[in-house]
Design goal:
Blueprint lengths: L9 H12 L2 H8 L16 H7 L3 H9 L15 H8 L2 H9 L14 H7 L3 H9 L3 H5 L15 H11 L6 H10 L6 H20 L5 H23 L5 H8 L9 H12 L7 H10 L10 H10 L20 E2 L7 E2 L2 H11 L3 H35 L2 H22 L7 H32 L1
Antiparallel strand pairs: 1-2
Helix pairs in contact: 1-2, 2-4, 3-4, 3-5, 5-6, 5-7, 6-8, 7-8, 11-13, 12-13, 16-17, 20-21
The protein binds zinc ion (2 copies).
Length: about 450
């Protein structure tokens, strides 16, 4: 029998309580009980999965899905789905989980909004990115079937898997995409690449022409199609398995080693986007056009930010060769560039070797300066401690709050959009002031401790 709204057993009520409290053990135990239906509905028509998604509890969502929770249940009084609740919670991992479990992103709530639109409305841009970038395998498999009068499908089914791997990447570095292509011998054929490009262009067109336009996905498909197109040209001209294309993409100019070919290539891909009226395209062009080649931000970072919502490329652990996140291997000489592994380092060395020594000297100089600055700061902060000590407790608090506020303002100015939502901002500054006043408390404690030792 299908569950009815508000008809909950005692155990089911307990289940909802444990979910909201994050008690995974009790939730697991109750899900094993015969008196608990995983898709039961509370009086608002919310399932346990919706509750877990809204509370942002990843493990709980996983557990419920394992127990057969219906990801597309649409009994909520305002037509909200679990994906919509995930979007509202701002937890992108949960949004991804729901989509992977087959959540329909095109469903609208009682006022006609999709999950992505709801997430955007509350400023949860990471979730918007996840939802907009998600591309279900069935939509690609569609092209592996013969349609209408065509004798054969647009995409041979053996190419669907390898192509799907390429289009679901969130790392859009051209070298990374070439890696993904090289990884699969099926894709290393001119004919195969051309078929993939045709399909990507068709998906791009569909994204732009459907009722719920998805410009993000359209730009992404177009961009990958451009890289594949270029790969087929290189395969045609040279028999080197795309090594020369990679070399071109990495080759740095004199004297700063900036990869000019790569920058120009990405800019050209964006410029070639066939739907001039697209807002996202205009936004990209506006951000890229005023930047001189060789300055920041690069076309790659602007594109990535638009498509994945990822910000902050500077000082992050991105591989210099392929843009993969989480790179840890440093060049042992200059210690300024990082790579995923030795393979990435080897590929980059032909151009990096020209600047490695110069970078090393630059780093050493910077380190010296930093050490000097640190000593100076230490001296200054000692002075500050005495000032804070002399104030009354009330004044002390006010002083720290003021300091933390100005700090958040400054960091907000430095960071570019997306602007944080009002609630996020106030939460952040509250936390910041909390931790900084705690720090002061600690500092004054240790200060007194030091004094008593003296
Ligand atoms: Zn790499
Ligand atoms: Zn180096």
């Amino acid at each position: 029998m299908a569950p009815r709204k508000g008809e909950l057993t005692e155990e089911e009520r307990q289940l909802l309580t444990h979910i909201s409290q994050g008690n995974i053990q009790e939730t697991r135990r109750l899900l094993g009980s015969k008196d608990v239906r995983v898709n039961c509905l509370d009086e608002h028509g919310m399932t346990p999965l919706m509750h877990a998604a809204y509370k942002g509890k990843v493990d709980m969502c996983k557990l419920l899905l394992q127990h057969g929770a219906d990801v597309n249940c649409n009994e909520h009084e305002h037509g909200y789905t679990a994906l919509m609740f995930a979007g509202l919670s701002g937890n992108k991992e949960i949004a991804w989980l729901m989509l992977e479990a087959g959540a329909d992103a095109d469903v609208v709530n009682s006022v006609g909004r999709t999950a992505a639109q709801m997430a955007a409305f509350v400023g949860q841009h990471d979730c918007v990115t996840v939802i907009n970038n998600f591309f279900p395998r069935e939509k690609l498999d569609y092209y592996t079937k013969t349609q209408g009068l065509n004798k054969e499908p647009k995409l041979p089914s053996k190419l669907a898997g390898p192509l799907y791997k390429v289009i679901t990447t969130t790392n859009l570095h051209p070298v990374k995409i070439v890696f993904l292509i090289k990884e699969n011998p099926l894709l290393m054929e001119i004919d195969a690449l051309k078929k993939c490009c045709t399909v990507l262009d068709l998906i791009c067109e569909k994204c732009m022409k459907q009722k719920d336009m998805n410009e993000v996905l359209a730009v992404k498909m177009h961009y990958i199609s451009c890289v594949m197109q270029k790969c087929s040209t290189f395969l045609q001209d040279q028999e080197d398995k795309l090594d020369n294309f990679i070399k071109n993409l990495l080759k740095g100019r004199d004297p700063d080693c900036f990869p000019v070919f790569q920058e120009k290539f990405i800019r050209e891909c964006i410029r070639k986007f066939p739907y001039c009226e697209a807002t996202l395209l205009q936004q990209l062009v506006r951000s890229i056009a005023p930047v001189e080649i060789g300055s920041d931000p690069t076309a790659f970072s602007i594109l990535t930010q638009a498509i994945t919502g990822q910000v902050g490329f500077i000082d992050a652990d991105f591989c210099t060769t392929c843009g993969e996140k989480g790179a840890t291997k440093r060049c042992s000489v200059c210690k300024l560039v990082i790579y995923c592994d030795q393979n990435c380092q080897k590929l980059h060395w032909f151009t990096h070797k020209k600047v490695c020594k110069m970078l090393k000297e630059k780093r050493e100089k910077q380190e010296e300066e930093a050490a000097r600055e640190k000593r100076r700061q230490e001296k200054l902060s000692k002075k500050d401690f005495f000032l804070v000590e002399e104030m009354k407790p009330d004044e002390q608090l006010a002083a720290t709050e003021g300091a933390s506020n100005s700090q958040t303002d400054a960091s907000r100015e430095a960071e570019c959009p997306p602007a944080p939502s009002a609630t996020e901002g106030s939460k952040e500054s509250k936390e910041a002031s909390l931790s900084s006043s705690e720090q002061t408390a600690d500092a004054s404690i240790s200060q007194t401790a030091n004094k008593s030792e003296e």
